[in-house]
Amino acid sequence: MSNRRLIHRVLLLGLVILSVAAFAADEAKIQPTLHMVAMRDGIRLATDVYLPAEGEPSCPVVLMRTPYGRASGRADGQRFCRQGYVMVAQDIRGRGQSEGHHAIIFRNGGWGKRRDGHDTLLWIASQKWCNGKVATIGGSAVGITQNMLAPDAPDVLKGQAVTVAFSDMYTQAAYQGGVWRKSLLEGWLIGTGMADVNLKTFREHPNYDDFWADMNPEAQAHRVNTPGIFIGGWYDIFLQGTINSFVTIHNNGGPNARGRCRLIIAPIAHGPFNELKYPPNSKMPPAAEASRLFDYWLKGNDNGAQDDKAVHYYVMGNPTDKDAGGNFWRQADNWPPPAEPTAFYFHPDKRLVRGAPPDGTKALSYRYDPNNPVPTVGGQNLLLPKGPMDQRKIESRPDVLLFTTDVLAEPVEVTGRIYAELYVSSDCPDTDFTVKLTDVYPDGRSMLVTDGILRASLRNSFEQPELLHPGQTCELTVDLWSTSLVFNTGHRIRVAISSSNAPRFEPNPNTAGKDTPRVATNTLAVSGKHPSHILLPIYRDEWAVKN
Fold first, then answer.
1. Strand 533-539 relative to strand 412-426: parallel, antiparallel, unpaired?
2. Residue 475: per-residue pLDDT
3. Three-state DSSP class for 154?
4. CATH (residue range 340-541)
5. Is the pLDDT of residue 269 over 50?
6. How many CB atoms are closer than 10 A to CB 126?
7. Which homologous superfamily is 27-162 in?
8. Cβ-contact 495, 437 below 8 angstroms
9. Mean pLDDT for all residues in the chain
10. For residues 232 and 163, is the Cβ–Cβ distance under 8 A?
11. pLDDT surpasses 50 at 20
12. Nearest to 518 by CA among 364, 363, 367
């Protein structure tokens, strides 16, 4: 090696060492100071403030309110400080070093009697290091604190970055389809030490009522006057909440929020999944960078964020076939994108067909035993194995009805909200019905796309149960939430009908809660008179927004 080249490498190494040392020194300067911030009732919340090492005397502020310990905001604090922001990280009421009691989780930060989020924003606005502009950030429970804050936020709030969070606790977290999300709620509350009052109280409210209305920011969207970027995943536990937050605020929010929000949906879950791996292009696009939008919303930087399409979503496909359709990002002006709701009917011979079944009174029955429920295999889970998983191990059970299309001669893209319209009966006063949509690969794998559940007694309203009349056919609609996926040529589309999915959902005892559990004989009508079907939103390429 020549002396010149050696000297050049030594100089480069020296520059790297100096840069690392400078970075470390900068981080050493960016250390939080603790403030005990008083709320309107006198309770004080532990609040860390990270100030930039250098810069303007007052800056825009990024706020994170968390039940998981404000120290979790350290990395964000140092990152945002280097970008010219003040970072504030706060333990919510009753958590970490904050005073008070955390029950009931999230309600203290909303629009009710205690308004901790509102009070915190007012405190920030009064500080000399705040220039009057604040944004919030965080995911999961930390995203939920943002959704709860938004309807009651003072004008100082100028933007939000909400990742994987519900917009309605009853339908998206606690009682999806009116059924207790056992694994999610019990696992999360017990695991985080918040089960004491919360778990008991949640179980005391199995139907939607005023208690749940206080944790339904979606119903308050018209009061939100702050734009937000909402980031979610097709297999996330709060997928529909992410979508609904965007839709309601972007279209019906206040003048500063309406038409200014962003939605990003990627092929991710609330944690890693393993049975399918999407290609490297599935990682988040630049439009998902919160700091980019914050620079636009809070600093007025002309960085191109204002020109982004409102919606970026990943169209999934067969990730094991490089020639398959799907596996790319698409942009749209709003959600849902245009699609043609197409009915696929359940036929007596177990076919899934676009044409309605023949006239008559055909029906298929199965016995559902709450002591032997269909086990959960994948899907939108937190602590259970999650994501797109092969369903064959449970599809052979006698309490699962399968309906499958012929092999597809051409790709079929399904993008949007999915519903199943079922005509059912039971010999019990109450029961549940589950619906799964799967992508059947040529090798036989039946990979879960999305699913849903509904308590039969809550078929008309989550507020007022209506028990079944044994043997009498009734119509109900099961919400499978949303997806975007191309069923490739050579694949088949499958729908599985059953009455349980445990421990994701607590099994229904079939007794309306009055007796010990009993076995139910549940019946699905598949006739011209009662044409049970699934509605798939079929997307066509000509509807794509031209970028």
1. antiparallel
2. 98
3. coil
4. 2.60.120.260
5. yes
6. 9
7. Alpha/Beta hydrolase fold, catalytic domain (3.40.50.1820)
8. yes
9. 93
10. yes
11. no
12. 367
